[in-house]
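Why Glycosyltransferase family 4 protein? Reviewers of the renewal asked for a concrete example.
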Amino acid sequence: MTAPAPIVWFVVPEGFDDPDRVSGGNVYDRRVGAELSGLGWDVRTVAAGIPVVTATTNPFERIPDGALVLVDGLVAVEAPAALEGAAGRLRVVVLVHMAAGAFADADPLRIEGERRTLPLAGRVIVASEWLRDELEDRGLSTPERLVVATPGSDEAAPAAGTPTGGSILCVGVVAPHKGQDTLIDALAALGPDPSWTCTFAGSVEADHGFAARVAACADQAGLSARITWAGVLNALELDDAYSRADVLIAPSRTESYGIAVGDALRRGIPVIASRVGGIAESAHPEDAAILVPPQDPRALGEALRQWIEDPALRARMSAAARRAAPIRKRWSDTARTIDFTLRGMP
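Here is what the prediction returned.
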């Protein structure tokens, strides 16, 4: 008789699978859930409204006693009372995509939610070594409970790019922590050089005020004709955007890892990014990336100028990215780390 599949209850933010609500955390949850199913798990998804405090139901109330529960960190920090009430009867693993305290304008309630909930978890799975160190340094978990499962990337054909190297791509929700304003300032510093275009792929709905200010700054700098605000792209559209890109720019103010960085490098696309958070872990090999200080448009602009004006540099970085692409970590590797962790839970 075949043994029944092990069960894991996966508590995720409501709408995590909505194609119009793309985020690194949602991508991670979707991919890991699918991969765990492929590894033999019976994955039972529970969607929690965000913020949980305004939701009409407790996301843990229908999960049976003794069950193994994988909880998205956003749900955990939004629902500390609910998780505190359930932790005594459930085997809890929390999956943390980003530390709330890493944001300059961090919500005190989310920081308090981290403080209350992460110590309850038997294991805390994090998206990078930087994030592991961040949580350990803040006393939110202990080394033996912290597990690093960095995001993977899918196999993809090498990007065709352009002969001039001027096709720039920036992927991510248009919001302060992603630093698109820094990139606009850097592009403005390039002056009248007509050789580049830049596509911003990501939602402009998360912070309307910031998105409007960034677009206005681009317009005032005379850049609008060379900038495309593409909004949220579906999988095929995003793949097409990558295929036409010469370089990915990740000007983030904070970043736990950088899924877009990994996706670009998997396609042989070099990266110019902020040296912040876990980006240095995703931006490898080192000779396929240029890392600059965060919130420094002058440094970012100089890196862009060097990229555009030096074809030999572009060739070296592109070759390095293409050589390393086949050996980059896959989502199946990410899921195997989580699978091992879940099976080891007492």
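The first strand starts at residue 7 and ends at 13. This is the kind of structural detail the renewal will allow us to pursue systematically.
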